[in-house]
Amino acid sequence: MTTQEMTPAIAAGQWEEALAIVALHRDKSAYAELFRYFAPRLRAFGIKMFGNEQQAMEMVQDTMLNVWQKAALFDASRGCASTWIFTIARNVRFDMLRKKQSRKDDISADDLWADGDYPEQEDNQSQQWDVHLVAEKVAPHFHALPPAQRLVMEKVYLDELSHQEVSEQLGIPLGTVKSRIRLALDRLREAIDGPRS
């Protein structure tokens, strides 16, 4: 099957097919279709995350460059193309934040939760991706938590379940889930920052 025969499938939103064409043939027209579709969506995500057009566009460029270079790594059996591309965007965003943070002192728990409260799991996709950054910085300290708190934190931050889903899965009240998270976060703040005076 030629690239021209596949073009209608791409136009119909078959992004997995487009990624396969890019991976197998380094096809620039298939890549252009991917770019035209995903770049504006990535830009909107970047502006929401950074509040800055320049940083958003840098994220778009880095993400789409990764899509071109790593198309062969896409595995349709593990998820759809849009999820894979937005996962790359999330990772690019984290790299950008790490570089920015490396110019400052090490990140503290208060930087992660500027409002002094724990983050709520929400349906919004971009807010769910923020959970990955928290998990990446905090998860190594989970072993220091009491088992009940550790279990809830792992389900929320590593398994990406909502508070309600954790409540239902463990058969405990939603308030208990939230209080265990709050207590765990207090312990984690101490583990990361040291005891408060």
* Tally of separate domains: 2
Helix count, DSSP H or I runs of 4 or more residues: 10
Report the top-level CATH class of the largest domain: Mainly Alpha
State the CATH topology of the largest domain.
Answer: Rna Polymerase Sigma Factor, Chain: A
The beta-strand count equals 0
| CATH architecture type of the largest domain | Orthogonal Bundle
SS class? mainly alpha
Q: CATH superfamily of the largest domain, called what?
A: RNA polymerase sigma factor, region 2, helix turn helix motif
In what range is the share of β-strand residues?
A: under 5%
Mean pLDDT: 76
Shape: elongated
Helical content class: over 70%
Radius of gyration: 20 Å
Report how far the terminal alpha carbons are from each other: 69 Å
Low-confidence regions: 1-12, 105-111, 113-129
> Biggest sheet: strands, sense, closure?
none
